[in-house]
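Sequence of Methyltransferase type 11 domain-containing protein (marine sediment metagenome).
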Amino acid sequence: MEKNNNKFFMGKAKKAYRQYYKGLKTAIGGNERFAWVRDILLENVTGKVILDVGCGEGTLLKMLKDNNNDVFGIDASETGVFSCEQKGLSCALADISIDEFPYHNDMFDIVLCFETVEHIESPHHCFWEIKRVLKDKGTFIISIPNPKNLHPYIYPSLFSFKNFKTFLLMNSFTIINIKGWGQATILNKLNRWLKSKNGLLCTKYMSRLLHFISRKRNLLMRKKIGTPFSYSYSFCFSCLSHKKDKTLMEQVAEETHPIPE
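Predicted 3D structure, token representation.
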């Protein structure tokens, strides 16, 4: 029965994200965002073995490979994996909600996961696999969209800043740094709202226009912090991993086990 359920969930993930990156040579805003990751969060990182979980079409992986790192990617999107392979990158097709990552224990110095866990059905399983393939005291860097940006979530309450920070700590990650990326505005919210409606003003062309205006505004204001009516587009958590023999689920079961009378 469990095997059939796994096939069911795997089918859903592949169907949902199969064409996710079709026609995209790089993710929207990818060059600017991932250059910031490389230059700020991964400054002077070279000669490391790095895994990008939810690597998409491979923009960040290519940047890190060009810095003489040994890079690997994993994603549920067939078009994303194909794009990575076209760039000469090593990338595995898998559902990170239920699949075991196709890598050895303690293989990676650094694991990255940018705006991915909000798309998946089991963040707990994904984190356990990340801890398995990441070396003890290895670096884990993860980002989530700011809830103020009205990004859709499978588990909305998990991705508030406070709750997600707690979730990282519960999974034995020590947070060493938190940074905000980008400057989002009311235009981002308006764009999200229009996408959820029907009508003349809710076409892809209007969405693209608002996105273009918002990006131009962000480029003009990117050197200013805390500009009026703006907020960070996403939060990036830099963490250290600590190995534990028990999963979070096993820890919760142990701590809540009823005491016989």
